[in-house]
């Protein structure tokens, strides 16, 4: 029969005469119950500890079995993986070889196609370049011809303008020469008449003494005419050759009309080779405003500066 500490504490004994002391018995039973309770608790704790150890041992054994099975499985898996890796590597090598051959074949085809396209493109560009070059050359020749034609027209216009101005200047020079000839003729006639008058009215030498001679008679001042001092100053100037830039090369201007009449200071009209007629020493007319002579014989006012230009 199994006793518990509670059974020991509440155990009842029969009573007899001259028996044990109940208090001592109760005290002893209480002490025994406490010790028994402690022993039970220790036994229970040891049982639990033993159970825990057994459980841990079982777990260890189970873990060992699992580890053993895991090792076996790992070996089997590693072997399978090795075989699979070898098989997959062989398959990958074979596939890579097939892909390489396919890529090489495709690349060769694309290379041939690119070469053909490049040759066709080069032929097209060369044809376009030649066509464009011919067109540009044609345009260049056309522009060159247009420029040459425009230059020829410009030169023709300049030649026409030159001939017109030359004719105008020649006519004006001829008119100036005629007017100058008329002026010189009149001047000489007047000087001759003055000389005759002076020779007829000479004073004796005794009457001259220190008296000043009267001023020589002068011509009345006419509007826009030359004076003696201007003529003498102009006659004393050195001759100047005509400007060579007035005549374009390859053109021969018409000859200037001859002027009949007296010549002052050996000035005579001459004609230069390949150029317009000139008058050597006629540069003394520069700065002299000669009046024009109309058909009625009266002087006309000289043209203004803007009309001369």
From TrEMBL:
Cellular compartment(s): Cytoplasm
GO cellular component, one term: cytoplasm
Main location: cytoplasm
Coiled coil: 50-153
GO BP annotation list: cell division
The keyword Cell cycle appears for this protein: yes
Segments for region (Disordered): 233-309
PANTHER family: CELL DIVISION PROTEIN DIVIVA
Protein name: DivIVA domain-containing protein
Lineage, broadest ranks: Bacteria, Thermotogati, Deinococcota, Deinococci, Deinococcales
